[in-house]
Specification:
Two copies of one chain form a homodimer. Chain A is α+β, with helices and mostly antiparallel strands. Chain A has two domains: 109 residues, Nucleic acid-binding proteins (OB fold (Dihydrolipoamide Acetyltransferase, E2P)), CATH 2.40.50.140; 301 residues, Bira Bifunctional Protein, Domain 2 (BirA Bifunctional Protein, domain 2), CATH 3.30.930. The first copy, chain A, is built from eleven helices and 19 strands. Chain A has an eight-stranded mixed beta sheet with strand order 7-11-12-19-18-17-14-13, sandwiched between helices. In chain A, strands 2-3-4-6-5 form a five-stranded mixed barrel. Chain A has a three-stranded antiparallel beta sheet with strand order 8-10-9, with no helix packed on it. In chain A, a hairpin with a 2-residue loop joins strand 9 and strand 10. The radius of gyration of chain A is 27 Å and the shape is elongated. About 3% of the residues of chain A have low confidence. At the A-B interface, strand 2, helix 3, helix 4, strand 7 and strand 8 of A face strand 2, helix 3, helix 4, strand 7 and strand 8 of B. Strand 9 of chain A pairs antiparallel with strand 9 of chain B, so a sheet runs across the interface.
Chain lengths: 451, 451
């Protein structure tokens, strides 16, 4: 057998970076199918253990890790190191002492690209021990750590489950413009865009468009960024976040929307438990709960509960983060699920298109609090043009300013409602993360515009 | 039996808009399961035929159409009309003369919301006879027409198939910021955002982020808007379009990317043919083709072909729309598929991160032309930091300006490549549409900022 060969690229345009013999590259996950035989692997050097005679190279790709061995002296002074990008040619054999049940005897290593000499951390590190700012600054490296990789793989799975659950319920995915001529909620907190010789804004919600979508297709959803020019830099807020927006027609009241969200989340959570239970268990004591039994409490009743049980006399028109935690605590005790829908917020604090709930000044709108954090706002919307006009006037807004939107209500608009889930917040609550920035590849806030 | 009842809402906040007796609303598609029995339907009045004694009301919801009947005199002067939103309670029975094999005897109709008296067209209209501007202006109504509804249901199916095909190939969906501090291609054609006290831009491509993603997760994709401040208003261009972005590591050359796209599109098209063949056949003579046999021609060879076959002596560094059509025509003759990958465009005309192809000034980048239109740009990217620095310098750009991006290439960057498909253009080519605006709910161009 020929001695193992190590090839390091010259520092120049790498025109041909492949090993020239043997088979196509295979994913590491499949190597056991090739016992005994030749395999070509490509990935990152994840761990490197050089003992007296033998060196162990753990190579990692998107499918798994492979234990590869080579005589230590063959490594010579090639300075192979962790995080280098490498191609390994070798023969695979069964090896019961290896985690994967097999091992690759290296016949050739080719370094496809060197990692730098001084990296801020290694991908085999416990990401928990690395600061959040550093993880964000070095996304390629942090994504290779198991913990951070898990977050974004789970987020992708969440997204896929969300869309899938809606597709199975007759919803149509829509794509709507994020460059708009005005706001859906009266014009504050909008980012301004220079649009040729005009001023435009970044959409703060697809609300109007999804309502138009309901009048056309009955059931629509969109997964997209929304933008809020709020000068926050808290652990809960972002200026750009990803909104899972749902809207559907022919509801009888906000309770239909609440019930729909219970079923939707239960469906998503069951799917995640089934496919990613092992990942979820790294982050939570239990798998994700069924949401079918989540309570729905009236806002006024919540205020009363907070007063009597937690001595909160400071709340009037809204809940604060502390109240959200307190209500989830109480809900957990009563229903076994640390989540609650709060329905009937004061109408005055909700956008003009919100339907009233009775005549006492309450709104047919709700928040879903999950593990102490608001992850959803939703409700029934007004669907009669004259009601919308009256709602605008009662807020001292001239209906003519919204005429192009109001005109859509003459085209056959069903009673409807919907909700929006913040993807980053939902990811946080599913994986028990503390800061919403942990669940965004590239967070944006008052101060952060890079990377 | 009591006489049928018709209820029309008062012009005020509609607090309780439901029929108070009988069953939950069911989707029209399922009515035959209820023969003989009571059903409650909700939808739009799609057609209305009032004969001497009998009136036929065709009600439509997101699942189908139902033929409902009522004595003409019972309609009285309630002025029920097409596009009104209605709830119908009635008993369903088998009726072989009806398209769906059953008919509903109406016992109660409740109008949930009146449509306006003068609508620009009806949802039962042939959308082809309505001008594109009108269809865009009245999206709720145009989405209810079969033809326009088909376009956006097909677009949603395309999106779902795209994501599904990638998920099955070990790709991870990523979400990256659209608010960026600079451009990926040198800074022209960017929309400027007022970001608190700073200037930011709308991302013209997720290119850098998806490359970082590859260094972390090996295979990534994103489906999202991208923005180009180009003063076009052509049938092919939009300032905001939806990009299906794919990037993956460990390629040997651009041919790997081409082959991957052949397989991906074939997979998507097969799925669409299978699930939506009846819709596709309304728009095309044949189902969508397999893309496995799509030719890949060198750019220089294409110029030569265009010269010799079409007398084109005016092309040098790029193709024009006419050349794209001519090449697809030629490809159709040679391969049976009106599509071709053109590989090896002049490097100078491609972004700095493009890998060269040989040393003759060609780029390892390609376009995919499909039925006469460019729907994809892709290729292999440079993955060595020193090559990127040299490429920047050769374009008189100081590498320090891109340092935060270049630093990511020290973290273990595999050889990689990818591509981006314009969703609107792909939708057009799948359904033989002539103007990209037909495939966008709310198009944006130099002049268009509403609705």
């Amino acid at each position: 057998m020929a001695p193992p060969q190590i090839v390091v690229p010259a520092n120049s345009v790498l025109r041909d970076c492949t090993v020239t013999t043997a088979a196509r590259r295979i994913f590491i996950e499949n190597i056991s199918e090739f016992i005994p035989g030749e395999v070509r692997l490509k990935g990152w050097i994840y761990r490197l253990r050089i003992l007296g005679k033998t060196a162990f190279v753990i190579l990692r790709d998107c499918s798994g890790e492979a234990q590869c061995v080579i005589a230590s002296e063959a490594l010579g002074d090639h300075k192979l190191k962790v995080e280098d990008v490498a191609e390994i040619l070798g023969s695979v054999r069964a090896e019961p002492r290896s985690k994967t049940g097999c091992e690759v005897d290296i016949s050739e290593i080719r370094v496809l690209n060197r990692a730098g000499q001084r990296l801020p951390f290694q991908s085999a590190a416990q990401a928990e021990s690395v600061g959040l700012e550093t993880l964000i600054q070095y996304r390629p490296l942090s994504l290779r750590t198991e913990a951070v990789g898990d977050i974004f793989r789970m987020q992708a799975a969440l997204l896929a489950s969300f869309r899938d659950a809606l597709n199975r319920r007759r919803f149509t995915e829509i794509v709507t413009s994020k460059i708009v001529s005005g706001g859906t909620e009266g014009g504050s907190n909008l980012f301004e865009i220079k649009y040729f010789d005009r001023v435009a804004y970044l959409a703060q919600s697809p609300q109007f468009y999804k309502e138009h979508g309901v009048a056309g297709l009955e059931r629509v959803y969109e997964t997209a960024h929304v933008y809020r020019a709020e000068p926050h830099a808290s652990s809960r807020h972002l200026t750009e976040y990803y909104s899972l927006d749902v809207e559907f027609g022919f509801i009888d009241g906000p309770e239909d929307v609440v019930q729909f969200e219970r079923e939707l989340l239960t469906d998503i959570f069951e799917n995640l438990n089934q496919k990613y239970g092992d990942v979820i268990k790294k982050y939570r004591a239990d798998l994700l709960p069924s949401m079918l039994g989540v309570a729905c409490w009236e806002f006024d009743a919540c205020l009363e509960m907070l007063r009597s049980e937690f001595g909160r006399t400071d709340l009037e028109d809204d809940l604060d983060p502390e109240a959200e935690r307190q209500l989830c605590q109480r809900a957990a005790r009563e229903t076994g699920i640390p989540a609650v829908f709060v329905l009937g917020f004061p109408l005055a604090a909700r956008p003009f298109y919100t339907a009233p709930r009775g005549s006492s000044g309450a709104a047919s709108s709700f928040d879903l609090l999950f593990q102490g954090l608001e992850i959803t706002t939703g409700g029934q919307r007004l669907h009669l043009r004259e009601d919308l006009e009256a709602a605008l006037r009662s807020r001292s807004i001239e209906p003519a300013n919204f005429e192009s939107h109001l005109a859509m209500f003459d085209l056959g608009m069903p009673p409807h409602g919907g909700f929006a889930i913040g993807l980053e917040r939902l990811t946080c609550q599913v994986l028990n993360l503390q800061n919403v920035r942990q669940a965004v590849l590239y967070p944006r806030d008052r101060y952060k515009l890079t990377p």
